[in-house]
Each structure stands twice: as C-alpha cells, then as structure tokens.
Write a structure and sequence with these properties.
Rossmann fold; binds 5-amino-5-deoxy-1-O-phosphono-D-mannitol; 35% helix; 27 strands; single chain; seven-stranded antiparallel β-sheet; Glutamine Phosphoribosylpyrophosphate, subunit 1, domain 1; alpha/beta; 3 domains
Length: 607
C-alpha cells in the first residue's frame, strides 16, 4: 500500500517522478504528491489519482534534479490534501519524507515531539518520521535518519530528503518493499521496480532493517548500527512494454487476455519431454515422502489458488492438506512440525499477513515454500524454497493472470509430489501432464468466447446481488468469481459450497436472482445439478459454467458458459476465465474504473 518514488541525478526529474507514480498507482490512489528540490523545496499534493497531481503541477519544466513522490492508500488520517505526502517537518526545517506502512508507536512519538515544540500539519502517523528526523538532525541527514529509524516501531519503508543535503536521498525499510534502480550518474528508489523500469533494469534490493543512501554516483547500504553492507546489482527481465496497455482499454482486460501466455510461461521448461522438474523446491525425495501434511497460507485471490492446491495435492499426492487465510492462521496456535510443508502463496510476495504467517511457520519448524510472481520480493527471502509463477507484471488491482499462473503451478507441484510419493501412477501422470501442456490453448479457446458473456452482462449488470455456487474444485472458482465481481463492480456477492446452500443462503433467492453455478464435468456433477434444480425452483436465474458437449444443462440454466473438455481437475484453470470476463463486462457497463477499484490497493503491506 502506498507507492514511493525518489530520484537523484543530473536530469530534471519532475517527469521521471510523475511517470514512476503512474506505474505505482496500483499500490494506492487516494491522493498523490511530489517534492522537487533544487535549493528550494517545491511540494504539490492533490487528493485523487496521479492524473490530478499531474494537472496541478502543469507541464512547465522544473530544474530540480532531485525529488520524492508518493501515491497514497490511507491508513491513518482521512483522504484530504494535508494528509497526502510528501510530508514536511516543521516549517522551514527543510526535512521532507514519503512513507509506506504503519508507524505503530506514532501516538507516543507525536506527544513527545509536540512537547518538544514540533508543530503538526496532518493527522498521519507518517508525520512523526519527518519530525523525528528534524529532531535528530545536526548537519548529517544519514545520521539523523539512522537515529530516527531506531525509534520507530511497526512496518514501513520511507525516504527522506533535506534542503541542506543536495544530491542525497536516504531511505530505510522494515517490512515494506524498497528497491533501488541503478543508472550511471543517477539513482532511483521506489516501492517497486515498475516505477523506474523505463529507465533501467538494474536493481539493488534493500533488505529489512537496512538504510540506503542514494547519491548520483551510487547507493550505500547500511545496517541499523551504521555498518556498510555489500550489495550486488541484479538485472530483471521485465520490459517497460509490459507496463503499457498496448492498445487495450484497461490493464485488467490486457491481463485477462494474457492468461494463455502466463500459463505457458509458468509451465515453461519445468515440463520437458514428459519430464517434470521443479527447480527451487529444496526438499529431497525422502523429505517429500516423509511429509505428513501440507498447509497453504495466503490472502484474497491467492487463498483461492491455495484451495485449488489443497484439492489437487490430496487427489494426486495423497497428502493431508489444508488451506487457510494467512491473517487468521497467524493468530491460531496451529499444530505444525518439521514434517509439515507450508506453501505461502502471494502474487506480490509482500503481503504482510502472508509474510507474518510464513515467519511463524518457520519458527515452528515447518519447511516454507513461497509461490510468488515477483522476483526478489520479501517472501523469497523469508522462505526455504521458492517457486515463481511467471505471469509477468500484473498492474490491474484485481488479480487475473497471476491466479491462473498460481493454479498452474499447483498442478505441477501436486503432480511432482505425487510422482515422488508414488501415489499417482506414471501413465496417469503422463496423461495429466500432457493435458497441462495443452492448457494455454484451451485457455485461448475459452477466452475467445467473450461474445457469449457480453449479453449476460447486458441482462444482469443492474442487479445488486449475485450468488456463486460450486462443489469440490468448483468451490474455489466460485469464490474467486464472486470476489472478482464484488471488487470491481461493487455488487454484493456470496459464494458458497453448493451443498451448504440449503443451510442458509437459499433464503436470499428471489425471482430472477442471478446464480452462477460451476457445473463442469466431475464426480460431483450430479450433486451440483440437484443444487441447480433447487435454485431454479425458487425462480432464480442460473448462469452455468459447464463442459463442452453437455447439452442437457441447457434445459436447466438460463445461460451456459462452455469450457473445452479436459481433465476435471484442470477445468479450474479454465472455469475462472469466463467469470473474470463476466465481472469485467458488468463493471465496465456500470462505468467503473476496473484497474483501480475504490478502497483497494494491489499490495497489502498493512495488517
Ligand atoms: O499479493 P497477494 O497475492 O498476496 O495479494 C493477496 C490479495 O490482496 C489479492 O489477491 C486481492 O484479493 C486482489 N484484489 C484480488 O483480486
């Protein structure tokens, strides 16, 4: 949540910072601000998206070659201009900061600094950082940041500048992401790489509890006690083009369409000539055979991918598996041990609850495998093993291609573990792998039926409630379909295990209530049909997701969204596609900004 961008170098940086903010807007978009420094400090802040800030700063050139910028997702203090960043300490102090995360002891610090004469201009927790730096400053910004940092509790990343320290930006992190972009003679710092991807692919990752001092000639990394840390330069293989809409009306639509490639890339060389290899999984065959349990931990869409993982791991690898919401699990006294494999799933690799759950799991002796889409993200440093999904950059706040990539990885993982444990015979595994290899094509075909989804959206986009039902592997897809619709269209949705409908949700059904039912071919198909009949009997309208060739379902449903035939388990990766398209089509008919739904942020770095 919140995006930070900083630049120090020799070029006028106003446009570089604004462009960086636009790239980070997915992290929060309540308000935005920029601070340009060239002997004097020019700060502009605006409520609203970066476009409002851009309009406010205008198109005229500004000579500043150093600056900070911020896009906000409010935690402490309402969405008003005085709470937007960059935030200054006392008037005339010259100290400016941008901050992401939460300062947990801000109230105590605020009282203490107020008593020492500091005057506050905002309701944010962030402002105490600026005043603390001002209080600790005696001519050396690095020392002031180090001293201030030592007094802060919570999880955060912040960057600071001082009018009297030209050519120096100082930043620190504890729990929130921060990365440096390296160009000869200039340095960027940001919450995420897309902020400077148009300028460089060379990056230096800032680790937790580190302070980084950026000057045009390079960055110096320091530990909290001031010791210099050696940090290499990595090169990422993302390109700027990926961060553009490339002719699509929205990022979300582009990302929905990119799913065949996301699946294909995630399979990649892991499946070669019928052999399945998962480099990155640091468990010996014996350790895999000895596993007593698998626990998936994640939030939001990634939690739904973990639910799919649970089904396939039980089915193919015969390991007792469960899936839990990270923010719940971390406060349970869950029973795990050295024979438990914990699989933490997160697109961003930075979700605070998932990170905390991982820490907890490792402390209790489990082997923790991270599944993430972002190389070098915090998760990859706090795990025992890591497997990357390769969906490419996802900018739309609603997860789409990262979900199908996660589900694909679940298939590969379950098959690999099943083969090692001898719970799936080689012929069946070969057949399944063959079908997995065919998933990108099947996904392409499924997405090609968008014209079937459009009239359904036309008919129901004014409805204020949708129910989603599924059983077995259809349940996580129902949950994900419902989440997509509610987050981008603001329509209330409920998603239920179809067998549970009679235990309560059936009371919600009225004449014409749209009910999306995952009714793909599987061993629970007949059971789903019974539930579907119950829905129809109450006058509700069924939108069924079914397998090609199932003509009988046309008699039972108002609308049918067909999927190409494949193995029942693999249909999960396809069944979600028309549901994403439906959510998209409904939200756009309601005139909403699907890439930046209200109140949300793509990366959730606060509890
Ligand atoms: O980065 P993560 O996968 O951990 O993110 C988890 C959730 O915040 C995320 O899936 C969220 O629910 C999305 N808005 C779903 O579209």
């Amino acid at each position: 949540m919140c995006g930070i961008v900083g630049y120090v170098g020799s070029r006028p940086c106003k446009e570089l910072l604004l462009h960086g903010l636009e790239r980070l807007e997915y992290r929060g978009y309540d308000s935005a601000g920029i601070c340009l420094m060239n002997g004097q400090v020019d700060i502009v802040r605006r409520v609203g998206k970066v476009s409002a800030l851009r309009e406010a700063v205008g198109t005229s050139a500004h000579p500043a070659t150093m600056g900070l910028a911020h896009t906000r997702w409010a935690t402490h203090g309402g969405v008003i201009e005085s709470n937007a960043h960059p935030i200054e300490a006392c008037e005339g102090s010259g100290v400016t900061v941008v901050h992401n995360g939460i300062i947990e002891n801000y109230a105590t610090l605020r009282r203490e600094l107020s008593a020492a004469g500091h005057e506050y201009h905002s309701d944010t927790d962030s402002e105490v950082i600026a005043h603390l730096i001002e209080e600790c400053y005696s001519g050396d910004l690095v020392e002031a940041v180090r001293a201030a940092y030592a007094r802060l509790d919570g999880h955060f990343a912040f960057a600071a500048a001082h009018r009297e320290s030209p050519g120096v930006l100082v930043a620190a992190r504890r729990g929130c992401p921060l990365v440096v972009g390296v160009v000869e003679g200039e340095m960027f710092m940001a919450s995420a790489i897309p902020a400077f991807l148009s300028q460089t692919r060379k990056v230096q990752y800032v680790h937790d509890d580190e302070i980084v001092v950026a000057r045009p000639g390079g960055a110096t990394f320091l530990s909290g006690d001031g010791a210099v840390i050696d940090r290499g330069v990595d090169e990422v293989d993302w390109d700027e083009e990926a961060a553009e809409k490339q002719g699509y009306e929205t990022f979300m639509l582009k990302e929905i369409e990119e799913q065949p490639d996301a699946i294909a890339e995630t399979i990649g060389e892991r499946l070669y000539r019928g052999r399945l290899q998962l480099d990155g999984l640091q468990l010996s065959d014996q350790q895999i055979r000895d596993l007593s349990r698998v626990v998936f931990l994640a939030c939001g869409t990634s939690y739904h991918a973990g639910l799919v993982g649970r089904y396939v791991l039980e089915e193919w690898a015969r390991i007792p598996s469960e899936s839990d919401i990270a923010s719940e699990w971390r406060y349970r006294h869950a029973v795990i041990d050295e024979r438990t494999l914990v699989i933490a799933v997160a697109q961003s690799g930075e979700t605070i609850d998932t990170l905390a759950a991982m820490k907890e799991a490792r402390a209790r002796g489990a082997h923790v495998l991270a599944v993430t889409n972002v190389m070098g993200s915090q998760m990859t440093r706090e795990c025992d093993s890591v497997l990357y999904t390769r969906a490419g950059l996802e900018i739309g706040v609603a997860a789409t291609k990262t979900f199908t990539a996660q589900v694909t990885l679940m298939y590969l993982l379950a098959l690999r573990l099943g083969l090692i444990r001898g719970t799936i015979d080689a012929t069946r595994a070969r057949a399944l792998l063959e079908q997995v290899r065919g998933l990108p094509d099947l996904a392409r075909r499924t997405l090609g039926r968008r014209h079937v989804v459009e009239p359904i959206a036309d008919r129901y986009f004014r409805n204020e409630f949708f129910l989603y039902l599924g059983r077995n592997m259809g349940l996580p897809i129902a949950l994900e379909g419902a989440l997509k619709l509610k987050e981008i269209s603001y329509i209330a949705t409920d998603a239920y295990a179809a067998g549970e409908m009679k235990h309560g949700p059936i009371a919600l059904l009225e004449e014409g209530t749209p009910v999306v039912v995952i009714a793909t071919d599987s061993h629970v198909y007949e059971k789903v049909v019974s539930n579907l009949e119950e829905v129809r009997a109450r006058g509700a309208h069924v939108i069924a997701v079914a397998t090609e060739g199932n003509e009988a379902i046309r008699e039972l449903a108002e609308h049918v969204l067909y999927l190409p035939r494949t193995e029942p388990e693999l249909q999960a990766a396809l069944a979600v596609l028309p549901l994403q398209q439906l959510a998209y089509a409904i939200a756009t008919r309601r005139g909403l900004d699907v890439d930046k739904p209200r109140n949300l942020a793509k990366t959730v770095t606060v509890e």
